[in-house]
Design brief:
The chain is an all-alpha fold. The chain is built from four helices and no strands. The longest helix has 24 residues.
Length: 80
């Protein structure tokens, strides 16, 4: 992430494709396998710190529903 980006979380959220139909968006699916769970972990930690003043336990299931959906899209579009 470039240091010139003041709000990296908002920047990444704004990079989410609005549709997966164009080829460019389909090609970006792989990057979201890494980005999305990381974003979810950051948001969970921020929420826990704001509401509970404690750091949450790490989870391997953060953002799992979107990851499953992306996997489904990737397999569907690879057949095209």
């Amino acid at each position: 992430m470039p240091a010139s980006i003041e709000d990296p979380l908002s920047y990444l959220l704004n990079c989410l494709p609005t549709t997966f139909r164009p080829k460019k968006a389909r090609n970006s699916i792989g990057t979201w396998y890494i980005r999305w769970p990381t974003i979810c972990a950051i948001l969970q930690e921020l929420d826990s710190l704001a509401h509970h003043s404690q750091i949450p336990e790490p989870s391997n299931h953060l953002g799992e529903s979107l990851i499953q959906y992306l996997h489904h899209l990737q397999s569907r579009f690879s057949d095209d």
